[in-house]
Write a structure and sequence with these properties.
The complex is a heterodimer of chains A (119) and B (107). Chain A is mainly beta. Chain A has no helices and eleven strands. Helix content of chain A is 0%, strand content 51%. In chain A, a hairpin with a 6-residue loop joins strand 9 and strand 10. In chain B, strand 9 and strand 10 form a beta hairpin. Chain B has 107 residues and is mainly beta. Classes of the chains: A mainly beta (119), B mainly beta (107). The interface between A and B is medium-sized, with 23 and 23 residues.
Chain lengths: 119, 107
């Protein structure tokens, strides 16, 4: 069974940093591209970033470039999102998702990690 | 960026009704359109990919159609468990973008 479990969320002050981890199991992690999507309370879904299977390519929504970094460790079956200079508007649930083999289609999602940016 | 416009933003319907949700892209995306269902407090779930392909395990009452810029998600006979929010998403190019969602409520 495919499982994606996010961790590392919490309360952080504006300007602070946080690293989210997504632990993957039940599939061959190194053969799938992976993605982060976020959702502010009561709002829609926002694609954040994607990383290719071997980590050689990454893609970001323009508004977050330079503040967020996606990475992965295939030996540990883990996906990461390093977030810097956090703002109140970054408050959201952050989901990791597996990319279907056809590309940017997200066939499995984690339960989400809540990040709250507040003073 | 490609803008995805869903309509309606909310919809009230009854069990057994046939429901259609539409999604329009601001430019052509071929068939690179996917539909997700999200229930409160849960992660989204993939229903339909590449416009019309039913994800494994999804009931056949769900169907998708369209290409280019105009797409539809149809639920042929609403079941109680279908009341949720539905999102379309283009997978044609980055940045990947989602529609703002259609909230399907019980009448």
């Amino acid at each position: 069974e495919v499982q994606l479990v996010e961790s590392g969320g919490g309360l952080v002050q504006p300007g602070g940093s946080l690293r989210l981890t997504c632990a993957a199991s039940g599939f061959s992690f190194s053969t799938y591209s992976m993605t982060w999507v976020r959702q502010a309370a009561g709002r829609g879904l926002e694609w954040v970033a994607n990383i290719k299977q071997d980590g050689s390519e990454t893609f970001y929504v323009d508004s977050l470039k330079g503040r967020f970094t996606i990475s992965r460790d295939n030996a540990k079956n883990s996906l990461y999102l390093q977030m810097y200079s956090l703002r109140v508007e970054d408050t959201a649930i952050y989901y990791c998702a597996r990319n279907f083999y056809l590309g940017m289609v997200f066939d499995h999602w984690g339960q989400g990690a809540l990040v709250t940016v507040s003073s | 960026d490609i803008q995805m416009t869903q309509s309606p933003s909310s919809l009230s319907a009854s069990v057994g009704d046939r429901v259609t949700i539409t999604c329009r892209a601001s430019q052509t995306i071929s068939s690179n359109l996917n539909w997700y269902q999200q229930k409160p407090g849960k992660a989204p779930k993939l229903l339909i990919y590449i416009a019309s392909y039913l994800q494994s395990g999804v009931p056949s009452r769900f169907s998708g159609s369209g290409s280019g810029t105009d797409f539809t998600l149809t639920i042929s006979s609403l079941q109680p468990e279908d009341f949720a929010t539905y999102y379309c998403q283009q997978s044609y190019t980055t940045p990947i973008t989602f529609g703002r969602g259609t909230r399907l409520e019980i009448k």
